[in-house]
Amino acid sequence: MPNNLFRRKTIESILQDAYNKSADTEAHGLKRVLSLRDLTFFGIAAIIGAGSFSALGPAIYNGGPGVSVLFVLCGIACAFTALCYSDFASRIPVAGSAYTYAYASLGEIVAWIIGWALLMEYAIGNVYVAFSWSDYFTSLLSRLHIHLPEYLTCSYSEASGSARPDLLRAWETAPQIGGLRLIVDLPALVINALITWLVYIGIRESRNFSNVMVIMKLSIIALILLITGYLIFHNGLTYNWTPPNAAGEHHFFPNQFSGVMKAVSGVFFAYIGFDAVSILAEESKNPQRDLPRGMILSLVICTVIYILLSLALTGVVPYDRFMNVNDPLAFIFEPQNLNIGWMQFLVAVCAVIAMSSVMLVMQMGQPRIWMSMSRDGLMPAAFQKIHPKYKTPHIATLMTGLVVGSMIVLSNSQFVLDFTSTGTLFAFVIVCAGVLFLPRREKTPGQFHMPYWNGKYVYPLLVLAGFSAFAVFNPEALLSHVPTLLFWLICGALAVMAFLKNLSVIPLLGLTSCLYLLTGIRESNWKWFFIWFGVGLVVYGVGRIRRG
Fold first, then answer.
1. Of the candidates 189, 246, 256, 212, which has an alpha carbon nearest to the alpha carbon of residue 473?
2. Torsion angle of C-alpha atoms 34, 12, 425, 527, degrees rounded to 10
3. Is residue 44 within 8 Å of 217, Cβ to Cβ?
4. How many domains are contained in the chain?
5. Residue 99 sits in which domain range?
6. Is residue 242 part of a domain?
7. Is the pTM of this model over 0.90?
8. Would you state the pLDDT for residue 21?
9. In this structure, what DSSP letter does residue 322 have?
10. What is the mean pLDDT of residues 417-445?
């Protein structure tokens, strides 16, 4: 049994399963229509959305102007991770992303765990995007003097017991049937249904819709940066970048770096989705060349945009005004701030567009992961069926829409945000670790090859330098914060392995940076994280028993 749990699939068998065109199966036949530009646009579509138009507000409140540094750290972590993804994608150009990569490098049980984690990233993460989309959509309607009842614009769990005026009105005015209050986020459910339908009918239609939306939202973001940049430097607002801290001293980190780290969930959520590009391997024209380029290009472009946006927002409006602000880009143009009404409306339109594109890419990702898991017998066989007309994994697509819709009814946005970020970071850790187990290969023209830099001496020295700096500047966290202590213990073990086995430094740095970001996750999220994976292991165990 243990051998079966950790059995690996060879790269050759994975490719054979994915590209077998036998006449008696419907499991294959996705359309290869995506170019490098399309893949890059899909990456931008997935990255710029709820992170910039919603999660950025609470992140700024916690971290102040210094949250821009956290975007740099997350960007670096994702850059190392993207290189690892790219190396896998060039070796194994099939749908399945981190799940397939883990199966080839670490074995079946780890692959299952990653598949279970990716359910958090794509299906459950899309719930948060749907909630954010609903917030901006109802705000847009209100500017057009169309007002939906509060009980149709929030979830039941958000309204229950809340003291916020709008949520309290939703609870008090909601109709009741048998004592149950009918409170549901209707716009979120509607957009989920529409996106599910679009993904169902085809990749070409989804690509065209995504490309148009990306061009529109990048244009509006450029306009926001131009306006705020002019106001910051023309009106001398740069003092907002060094606000007073609790001691009255002006500082770029008004809540110290620990305050910046509190924003990890929100900031990292902005980055999840760049790996969605790898899931489109079987619909790419030249996956071994274009997948790595698409991931890296979209990540670099979006990191620069997020850094500029965080500096722009904290420059024109003091950071402490962003408390409970879930529409930060529109918020800065409100009457109490910059008072530019037409930009409020334009940002609301842009946000609806941006988050629609995020939902589209995320909703495309989950069915293709389930399709790959179905090929390996870890999911029902129906999930690998391809629609004869639309050439999409239609049953898995409908199931994804059902899961997202159910979570919209049962959950709330903050829980989903933290939950998803934890699972995604965990998946990134596994991908970086998996690369360390792959044999080095000879260079092939037209394919991505991650550089091999021997970490035998470099990585242990970096760990020693980092630990020394941490001990000097934040010594109390070494003993009082269990995740931080575990982080340094793991880094020490990795340093020993790097020295003994000449491990490559790039995946080691990706692994280390993602592990460090995990130390910023709240303890309550870890509890739900382990409960989630406990359920996943039970599901896996039951499946193994049924398969004999």
1. 256
2. 130
3. no
4. 1
5. 2-16+32-176+186-433
6. yes
7. no
8. 42
9. G
10. 79
Which among 223, 198, 151, 544 is positioned nearest to 376, based on CA atoms?
Answer: 544
pLDDT band at 274 (very low <50, low <70, confident <90, very high): confident
**Alpha-carbon gap, residue 69 to 217, rounded angstroms:** 24
Each residue's pLDDT tens digit, 142-173:
878 898 998 999 888 888 877 778 788 888 88
Task: Give, in order, the Cα–Cα distances in Å from 228 to each of 50, 236, 332, 333.
Answer: 20, 12, 9, 10
- Looking at residue 22, its pLDDT comes to 36
Entry field: residues in the chain: 548
Which of 180, 158, 159, 189 lies closest to 171, judged by CA?
A: 159
pLDDT in tens, 367-422: 888 888 888 888 888 898 888 888 888 999 999 999 999 988 887 776 776 677 77
Give the CA count within 13 Å in the CB-facing half-sphere of 504. Answer: 21
Query: Any idea what the CATH number is for the domain that residue 211 is in?
Result: 1.20.1740.10
Q: Scan for tokens 């138009």, then name that residue.
A: 53
Residue 93: what pLDDT?
Answer: 80
Whole-angstrom Cα distance, residue 119 to residue 424?
9
- Lowest pLDDT segment from 39-43, 399-403, 436-440, 485-489: 436-440
Distance CA 224, CA 348 (A): 12
Q: Which residues fall within 8 angstroms of residue 414, CB to CB, at 6 or more apart?
A: none
Q: Is residue 458 part of a domain?
A: no
pLDDT digits (tens, 9 = 90+) for 59-73: 888 888 988 888 888
Which pLDDT does position 27 carry in this prediction? Answer: 43
Q: Tell me, yes or no, whether 324 lies in a domain.
A: yes
The identity of residue 380, as a single letter, is: P
Instruction: Give dist(CA 526, CA 530) in Å, integer.
Output: 6
Coil vs helix vs strand at 239: helix
DSSP one-letter string for 166-224: HHHHHHHH--EETTEE----HHHHHHHHHHHHHHHH-HHHHHHHHHHHHHHHHHHHHHH
Exposed, middle or buried: residue 523 (CB in 10 Å: 0-12, 13-18, 19+)?
Answer: exposed
> Greater confidence, 188 or 207?
188
Of the candidates 474, 74, 494, 12, the one whose C-alpha atom is nearest the C-alpha of residue 268 is 74
With vertex at residue 325, the alpha carbon angle to CA 319 and CA 330, rounded to the nearest 5 degrees, is 90
- Inter-axis angle of helices 264-271 and 56-63, nearest 10: 140
The verdict on residue 215 lying in a domain is yes
